[in-house]
Design a protein that fits this description.
The protein is an all-beta fold and 138 residues long. 0% of the residues lie in helices and 56% in strands. The chain contains no helices and eleven strands. Strand 7 (81-87) and strand 8 form a beta hairpin. It is globular and about 50 Å long. The two termini are 28 Å apart.
Length: 138
């Protein structure tokens, strides 16, 4: 089953350890118990999220893939980042949590051969976990 969450207007990140005091409420979302300062990520245009799931070893495993286009690479170094995405309707979702596994970041730089080609960096954030992307509860 594939779910598409198109039209992500804002992407922000935070180091995973800041989310230690968050509560995951099964089948509902995540409650951020204390105010968390997310850092905005500059993107070009709208971003998208794709969520797929499958049964593996009698457990449902979710793969969440965030795709965004930027003018430069997203290089976190040794930091373990989690991402908050905001849709055009204002709904917010969290990709990742304080515990492993953490989202994996992949950068793909494009140098087009024609003048009309789109040059920049496509950043793909992938999280494969037993926990899907979670709605942020107020």
């Amino acid at each position: 089953m594939i779910h598409l969450l198109k039209n992500i207007r804002r992407v922000e990140c935070i180091e995973a350890y800041h989310l230690q005091h968050s509560d995951i409420i099964a089948d509902r979302g995540v409650w951020l118990n204390v105010y968390q300062q997310f850092s905005p990520i500059d993107t070009i245009g709208l971003s998208s999220v794709e969520i797929s799931d499958k049964i593996e070893n009698k457990q449902r495993v979710f793969t969440t893939r965030l795709t965004m286009f930027r003018s430069e690479k997203l290089l976190p170094g040794t930091k373990k980042l989690c991402f908050r995405v905001t849709t055009v309707t204002g709904s917010q979702f969290l990709i990742g949590c304080a515990d492993k596994p953490y989202p994996v970041i992949q950068n793909e730089e494009t140098f087009p051969s024609s003048d009309s080609g789109k040059s920049g960096v496509t950043v793909t954030v992938t999280l494969t976990s037993l926990i899907p992307m979670l709605s942020i509860l107020d």
